[in-house]
Design a protein that fits this description.
Number of domains: 1
Structural class: mainly alpha
Strand content: under 5%
Shape: elongated
Transmembrane segments: 37-56, 172-190, 202-226
Radius of gyration: 27 Å
Domain MotA/TolQ/ExbB proton channel: 136-236
Keywords: Cell inner membrane, Cell membrane, Cell projection, Chemotaxis, Cilium, Flagellar rotation, Flagellum, Hydrogen ion transport, Ion transport, Membrane, Transmembrane, Transmembrane helix, Transport
Membrane topology: Multi-pass membrane protein
Subcellular location: Cell inner membrane
């Protein structure tokens, strides 16, 4: 909601100020479709040249984070900690029984408690690969932490690909606006024999290109890149929570202590309350 409000406020202030100063929208509206075609088309085309089809699709999906925000919410963290509690508890009590859950998580009664987790391949791989490595005696806390940090860095690099793409578009838009403006000037020079009032409208239309390139870059696309980066950073905290639980687990801390260490590392706006998490764990024990 705040993103929509910010966009609406920006448009109101920019164009409202222009109209209050005595400007006329006629010239802008007349030139807008053609300028958008040149500037927007060149931006999308250049982005397509420098990226793969998968990257284009990812950028399109990630742009929606401007309005939806982070993928993971407070309730997701609560559910994650419950799932990890059951897994590490099972790993200590029945390592053989754990194998069925990590080999086929989509049929695991533990993972099925958190369907959203099953849709995130990165989180699922981190959990299953770490537990599988532990079953092969790769359980040194320092080595596990280093391995998880590398996996999280790889995931972060993937999540931030859209950020770099959007920022590159924002950086190029002012120059593309100048290109469109130059083409407008060329068009104007072809009508140099026209009266001043005609030339004025042609020059005004040409300058719309410069305005549009700068406006799109700094008022829309660059803020979009910033918001997508904030959402990506927020999502990375989800994977860091998994890491904290496993590192504590391999340090042989009690399962509830592993959860508490991870819970305190979660950003405050997503952090589940101690009482709520403790009640959820008690409920799991009573149903075990």
């Amino acid at each position: 909601m705040i993103a929509f409000a910010g966009i609406a406020f920006t448009f109101c202030m920019v164009f409202g100020g222009y109209l209050l100063a005595g400007g006329k929208m006629t010239i802008i509206l007349k030139a807008l479709p053609f300028e958008m075609m040149m500037i927007g088309g060149a931006a999308v085309g250049a982005f397509a040249v420098g990226n793969t089809l998968a990257s284009l699709k990812q950028t399109g999906r990630d742009t929606m984070k401007v309005f939806k925000g982070s993928q993971w919410k407070a309730e997701d963290y609560n559910q994650l900690l419950q799932v990890l509690y059951q897994l590490i508890n099972l790993a200590r009590k029945n390592p053989v029984g754990l194998e069925a859950h990590i080999d086929n998580p989509r049929e695991s009664e533990i993972f099925l408690q958190f369907p959203k987790l099953l849709k995130d391949h990165a989180a699922l791989d981190i959990i299953c690969d770490t537990l599988r490595s532990a079953s092969m005696n790769y359980d040194d806390p320092m080595q596990v932490e280093e391995l998880l940090d590398r996996k999280i860095d790889e995931t972060k690099h993937h999540l931030e690909h859209s950020v770099h793409g959007l920022q590159s578009i924002a950086d190029g838009l002012p120059a593309l606006g100048i290109v469109a403006a130059v083409l407008g000037v060329i068009k104007t020079m072809g009508s140099i024999d026209q009266p001043p009032e005609v030339l004025g409208k042609l020059i005004g239309g040409a300058l719309v290109g410069t305005f549009l390139g700068v406006f799109l870059a700094y008022c829309l696309v660059a803020p979009f890149a910033l918001k997508v980066k904030a959402a990506a950073d927020d999502d990375i905290n989800f994977y860091k929570t998994i890491k904290e639980v496993f590192v504590s687990h391999f340090h042989q801390h009690p399962p509830k202590m592993c959860l508490e260490v991870a819970r305190q590392s979660i950003p405050h706006h997503h952090r589940p309350g101690f009482a709520a998490l403790d009640e959820a764990i008690r409920s799991l024990k009573s149903h075990a």
